[in-house]
Amino acid sequence: MFDAAQALAVRAISEARDAKELSKNTGVQRKQQKGYWYYSAFVQNPLKTIPYASVPVGIYISFDKGECPTINHLSVQDPTGADIPFQWEEAFDTRTEQPYGQYSDFSLRHGTIWIMTSLAADELKVFTVKVSEVPTVKAFSEAVTQVVESATVDLLQAGAITVKFAQSGVWLGRSIHNSGIDFNPTSPLVQIMLTDSARVDNAATSSNTTLISRKFTGNGVVYKESEVVFTFNACPSLLITARLRMFANGKVTTYHHAIATDDIAAGVVNGWFTRVQFDHPSGNTEQKSMPLGYMYTTNAGSASKCLLAGVRHMQFLSEAPNSDTGFNSHYGNSNTGGSVFYLIYCWKNNSGTKAISKGTFFSTSGYITSGVQVADVDNEANRRMNRIFTRAASDTKDALKSRFLELVKKFLNPSREWALANDNWYFGGLQGLQALSMALLYGQDLARWVEIARAKLDSNLDAHYGGGTSKDGFILGWTTNYGWEFIGRDMALVPFLREAYLQLGDTAKAADMANLLHRLADAAVDMEVASGGGGKMYLRNNATQLLPDNYNAEAAALVALAESLAITENATRRATFNRIAAQFTTAYEFVNRTPYNQSNAGQPGSQSTTGSLVLSVKMPTNHYHLFNLYEAFRANDVVPLGVPLPSPRQYAFEMSSPAGQIWEKETNHQHNRRGPALTHILNACSIGRWGDNASDWEQACVLLEHVLERMKPSGDIERPMDGWGVKDSDIHNFPIEAQVLTDTVRHAIMTIA
Fold first, then answer.
1. In terms of domain of life, where is this protein from (predicted)?
2. How far is the C-alpha of 395 from the C-alpha of 28, rounded, in Å?
């Protein structure tokens, strides 16, 4: 929690960063007309077959200092030009909850403009955000109201739906009602729990917690929110912030954040849980869905309707090494009789022997909907999981693509000569890919950079893959040291080289690259068989690594097969391609879920029936989400999979913020390196690579700028951060982000009008 003085100091520091060359507005001329600036916000239904009725939409936006003095200078117009109600929410640091919403002069800075709209399946609407020179007081009616029901009970109400809160305790929500039906008459709806050294669940009640603050926020035009801040008496150094938000359509989101305000000794805290729990006495039924990640229960008084809940994402960071953490969600019954049915999303210290360092945090995001028609529950779960976000764009799509290219130069150029002059065994193929990126970005001598890139490729093939003269060299690498992602990144250069040779008219060398791609594809065929078939692919095939890796191995193999098939059709390669592709295209439309969340034997997320645990979903690191989706989409661009894929663009918006931050699960000093760095790049490239409007490219630029401003050393760009190793030393080789950056650069150049 930040007081006013701290918040002002933080704003001043951040403004100094904004004043640097990497300022958001580099190269952008905002559109001005008749006394106001205006922005365009492209809002698209991410679901191809499911409509949204009266859904909240979050429009990210950032302003220059002084550009928008107050909310009264803002207005929003729908596609017809009519002014519509909106609500402003300031941005906050996804790690510390530090506010980012205002400058030191209190003008608006980073935030989300919330509106309500309806969208047909796959529909696109364009809204306009105006910033006027003259303030105008808006008078929008409340859609969500706070009511004091009694001396001990508050409630939030939107239409026929209410959520009740106990004034005296720290319960986030006691019960939820729809048209008079209480779907949770006995048990608290949302419960926060601490697991102590004896692994005893300590519910967050007034008897074992210290309440710091409790308040309702939001003007109710689009939402109101209950916020409770407290600590557990068993561990005062763990600060809990819990929020429950009700939107104008009566639907609820939850957000919980726990941070260690001081070092916590080993054994004091073994876990922290958010539990959404439903009653299911006689006459109620409960269901759960693994691929879709939700649970629901019907009420005896309304058999056709249900109470639905699900988890969107969780985030964890520890600065301490060897934090020994578990990180998942599961469904279960609280006892043998099954009087309570619950969904838990949690962090836990598996061994109970590790200390928790100051600054360690855990956060969760979930949703609750009451009164859902049982027949529509899958569609509603898709809608709730797939929140709709976009960004207010300050320029045209092509202008923003050009801005993105300039930012990529700032990322790649500082390490260009160093990376090319210092041979290193790690990802040698990517060092060659960097060479080609220079030709793309600067229009430099293609023949020269192709020669450099080919030398890097040949050296890498000789060192690790038997020269690449047969499929056996790749299989040998896979059975000794190299995971499929490693091989895929090393070979990402080959399709670019083949294309470059064709541009140079050297058909013989282009044919060499085609044959190399065929040998890699044939290796993938044999590796899939060795992994057990069925479209599964081990990370490595050695004694210690006979395991899957969140479908990243499958995604990398899919790309290799697609590149080969695009050149020459082959029945054996095609059959393997189809089996792997099926892992990414099976029977669900969740665009925020990736295949390893499905119930597939041998993969994270498999069902369990041990004890009271009914179902378990392991929440993975977000750069895994984005990497396998990015690779699957890249393969689909080369050889269409035939079935709509989950959208990396939608997931990238969901997992990023107005200020350009990302939500991430990482440990061991990785918040500013490795996973989060790669996730920023993958977010930016996913939005840009498969985006089709100015909103997408604006957010891509903001995300890339956030990384550039924080490269190691802090605030400098002498060398990019190391995207793989967990270390505080300077970069020791070329960063893996080059693969997706080069691919996105090529796409941007080819599509600029």
1. Bacteria
2. 7
H or E segment to which residue 596 belongs? none
Percent pLDDT > 70 in the chain is 70
Cβ pair 29, 37 in contact under 8 A = no
Mean pLDDT rounded to a whole number for the chain? 76
Q: Are 298 and 218 in contact (CB under 8 A)?
A: no
pTM of the model: 0.86
Which whole-number Å values give the CA distances from 125 to 192, 247, 653, in the listed order? 39, 21, 17
Q: How far is CA 735 from CA 331, 419, 707, 709, 732, in A?
A: 39, 9, 13, 17, 9
Q: Which pair of structure tokens corresponds to residue 419?
A: 């990376």
What local confidence, expressed as pLDDT, does residue 652 receive?
81
Residue 638, number of CB atoms within 10 A of its CB: 16
Cα separation of 753 and 751, whole Å?
6
Q: What residue type is 122 in one-letter code?
A: D
Is 76 in contact with 84 (CB distance < 8 Å)? yes
Q: Is 571 helix (H, G, I), strand (E, B) or coil?
A: helix
For 31-73, write each residue's pLDDT tens digit: 555 567 899 999 999 888 889 999 999 999 999 999 999 999 9
Burial environment of residue 424 by CB neighbours within 10 A (0 to 12, 13 to 18, 19 or more): exposed
- Which amino acid, residue 719? R
- Conformation bin of residue 93: beta by default, left when phi > 0, alpha when psi is -120 to 50: beta
Cα separation values, 586 from 312, 313, 641, Å: 20, 21, 11
Contact 109, 54 (CB under 8 A): no
Q: Alpha-carbon distance 201 to 192, whole Å?
A: 10
Report the alpha-carbon distance of residue 172 to residue 188 in Å, rounded: 9
From 621, 619, 586, 581, select the one nearest 600 (Cα to Cα).
Answer: 586
Cis peptide upstream of residue 713 (ω within 30 degrees of 0):
yes
Q: 673 near 712, Cβ under 8 Å?
A: yes
Identity (one letter) of the amino acid at 514? A
Tokens of 542: 């050695």
Phi and psi of 232, rounded to 5°? -85, 140
What is the Cα–Cα distance from 50 to 57, expressed in whole angstroms? 16
How many whole angstroms separate alpha carbon 26 and alpha carbon 407? 10
Spatial distance between the Cα atoms of 513 and 528, rounded to a whole number of angstroms = 23
Please enumerate in sequence order all residues whose Cβ is within 8 A of that of 656, keeping only pairs 6 or more positions apart, or say none: 662, 663, 683, 699, 703
Express the helix, strand and coil content of the chain in percent, nearest 5 each: 35, 30, 40
Please give the Cα distance from 253 to 89 (Å, whole number): 15
- Two structure tokens written together for 74: 């803002």
